[in-house]
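Hi there, hope your week has been kind to you so far. Thanks so much in advance, here it is:
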Amino acid sequence: MEIIEKVAYLKGLAEGMELDTGKKEGKLLAAIIDLLEDIALEIEDIEDEQAELSDGLDAVSDDLEDVEDLVFEDWDEDDEDEYEEDELDEDEDCYATTCPTCEETIYFDESILDEGEVICPNCGEKLEFDMSSLEEESEEGSDEE
């Protein structure tokens, strides 16, 4: 049962009980029922407007999909993979890590290593590392050989 129907039921009950709207209690109950009716009508209007907006948003989404199809019709996943491989080949000193928060792969070059931190472009997580400890470990490993 819809809210407006429930309010109509309450209104019918009040009329069936023959509430005396001349007394304080009767006036109060009548005012509450009228207020409930107004609220129920407002909710119906909001639901109608929301449904209308949803339909409009669906239409915009469909139109955007058509535009994307036109713009990217020659672009496919194979092209994307080739582009990423070309980009990585050009930068010989490219490094990658995975963000512990969002699990996004982060690519960075040697200049970022000097700074000692990487900020995830996806979630903004700050990943810090100490290059001096890595250098010491690599030196120790080469001394042992």
About this structure: The helical segments are 3-16, 24-71, 77-90, 110-115, 131-144. The first strand starts at residue 94 and ends at 98. The CA atoms of residues 113 and 131 lie 7 Å apart.
